[in-house]
Write a sequence for this structure.
């Protein structure tokens, strides 16, 4: 089963318009064929600018979150139609910083993924265990619960990002063996949920302190189909190096 790699650059709450413009200009100048599908996830005020800046290139753009309703009195939130209108193709659902900082439940994340598809967006559903959960041996239980809720019975289209919380922004990357073990488990659970064929074609990304220096080794694992990159995506050269390591 060949799966085209996918690499996401999650800018989180970083960068200003001038940075984003320079970044897009750098990507527009990248003429080499990409070995992966690529999407950038800027914060909401930068989305339209980045989508415009990347129009006509192979680089796509996505939101970091969406509200499950399509409109209404939800101060500070962003809707699926607004993301699509800004030029987004993807949206992150259930990033651990949303789960932790905003108390997002598994059920809410499932509704967000459903709303994303309704508005023509592809959800990138993020799952991952805390250090305590890993230490107490409940990692697979947590991943299975988050996965099933995030899919909400509708697997297409979507991609999955496995992001162990203890590896996010900590500089501590999961070893390729630990990551592969989790990815293989996720694919097995997916096979139970959506069937072996669909599970075999589903892209499962690894996220958590991915850098140019560790990307190739992680990517060499059979069930790692690309990356969701935070800190290292803020520098276009580093991000491009990570993308190239998926070749
Ligand atoms: P990091 O973040 O690469 O900075 O660890 C990854 C993520 O949160 O998506």
């Amino acid at each position: 089963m060949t799966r085209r790699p996918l690499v996401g650059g999650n800018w989180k709450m970083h960068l200003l318009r001038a940075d984003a413009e320079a970044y897009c200009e750098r990507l527009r100048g990248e003429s080499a064929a990409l070995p992966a599908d690529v999407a950038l996830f800027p914060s909401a005020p930068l989305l339209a600018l980045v989508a415009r800046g990347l129009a006509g290139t192979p680089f796509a753009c996505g939101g970091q979150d969406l509200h499950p309703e399509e409109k209404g009195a939800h101060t500070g939130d962003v809707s699926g139609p607004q993301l699509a209108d800004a030029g987004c193709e993807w949206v992150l659902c259930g990033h651990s910083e949303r789960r932790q900082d905003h108390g997002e439940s598994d059920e809410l994340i499932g509704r967000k993924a459903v709303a994303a598809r309704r508005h023509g967006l592809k959800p990138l559903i993020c799952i991952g265990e805390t250090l305590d959960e890993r230490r107490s041996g409940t990692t697979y239980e947590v991943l299975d619960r988050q996965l099933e809720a995030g899919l909400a019975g509708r697997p297409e289209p979507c991609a999955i990002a496995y992001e162990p919380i203890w590896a996010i922004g900590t500089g501590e990357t999961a070893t390729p063996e630990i990551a592969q073990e989790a990815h293989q488990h996720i694919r097995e659970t997916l096979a139970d949920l959506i069937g072996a064929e669909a599970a075999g074609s589903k892209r499962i990304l690894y996220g958590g302190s991915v850098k140019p220096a560790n990307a190739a080794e992680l990517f060499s694992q059979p069930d790692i189909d690309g990356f969701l990159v935070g800190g290292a995506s803020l520098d276009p050269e580093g991000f491009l190096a990570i993308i190239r390591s998926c070749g």
